[in-house]
Amino acid sequence: MARTVFITGASSGIGEAAARAFAEEGYRLVIAGRRHERLKTLKRELEADFAAEILVLSFDIRDRFQCEAAVESMPEEFADIDILVNNAGLAAGLERIDEGDPMDWDAMIDTNIKGLLYVTRVIANKMIQRGAGHIVNIGSIAGTQPYPDGGVYCGTKHAVHALSQSMRMDFLGFGVKVTEIRPGMAETEFSLVRFHGDQEAADEVYSGITPLTGDDVADAILWAVQQPAHVNISEIVITPQQQANAYCVSRGKREENGGE
Q1: C-alpha to C-alpha distance for 28 and 169, rounded to whole angstroms
Q2: Which end of the chain is more exposed for a tag (fewer CB within 10 A), N or C?
Q3: Coil/strand/helix, residue 121
Q4: Longest distance between any two alpha carbons in the chain, whole Å
Q5: With 0-12 CB in 10 A as exposed, 13-18 as middle and 19+ as buried, what is 65?
Q6: DSSP per residue over 42-71, as a string?
Q7: CA-based Rg of the chain, rounded to a whole angstrom?
Q8: Which residue blocks in 171-206 are alpha helix, DSSP H?
Q9: CB 224 within 8 A of CB 183
Q10: Which residues are known catalytic residues?
């Protein structure tokens, strides 16, 4: 029987790439996000390419009641989630704390921390009842390496790092694995969202380097969840070859504030 994977933020970037990787491997998928039309398009493509079983759930992860209602609405064949990929997240703005927009702060905190908690709570409960499951949290190197002008985003990813470690301890003995994957610079819609649609500013982030792609991170997710039952991959840090950490990026010379 095919295992079922629930992916948040599946309409683009790492989430979309993960959906494709799991579909190609024969998994049943629940793809979740706010952009319903994008999710429907992805569903059609995965069904056509891989004959995959796909369920689309459109809801706002920042709303606890929508999260709970969406999960509880799943038909029986999708209800037992084997793997949860907490991918939904964003960065909004790049400025000092005193210049930051509280609306951006709310978006990051509500999505990156609270949304992850809302979805995890309801799905982990079902995993514990069955005595099996795997939760994959998509963090960031910013979760251990804060950088200037990114304080609130870095703070949310520090929270994801701490929550991942706490979940590992909380679920110990219940048969539920927990993995955190912390990418560095990955060229998705990340920077475009951070700079509020400014394509030139987004492109500049990756100037002179070959960044990660969503597919690179999806490969790491797939590898982690396909380990033997007795093996738990606690965390994976993955960066471009030209990025040593959040501060050191080679674009022909060493520069600071690599970000992501």
Answers
A1: 28
A2: N
A3: helix
A4: 55
A5: exposed
A6: HHHHHHHHH---EEEEE--TT-HHHHHHHH
A7: 18
A8: 190-194, 199-205
A9: no
A10: 153
- Scanning the structure block, which residue is given the tokens 């790439």? 17
Which structural domains are found in the chain, ordered by start?
4-255 (3.40.50.720)
Per the listing, tokens 């380990």 go with 227
Q: Which two tokens stand for residue 9?
A: 């933020």
pLDDT in tens, the chain (260 residues): 689 999 999 999 999 999 999 999 999 999 999 999 999 999 999 999 999 999 999 999 999 999 999 999 999 999 999 999 999 999 999 999 999 999 999 999 999 999 999 999 999 999 999 999 999 999 999 999 999 999 999 999 999 999 999 999 999 999 999 999 999 999 998 888 999 999 999 999 999 999 999 999 999 999 999 999 999 999 999 999 999 999 999 997 544 455 56
226 within 8 A of 192, measured Cβ to Cβ: no
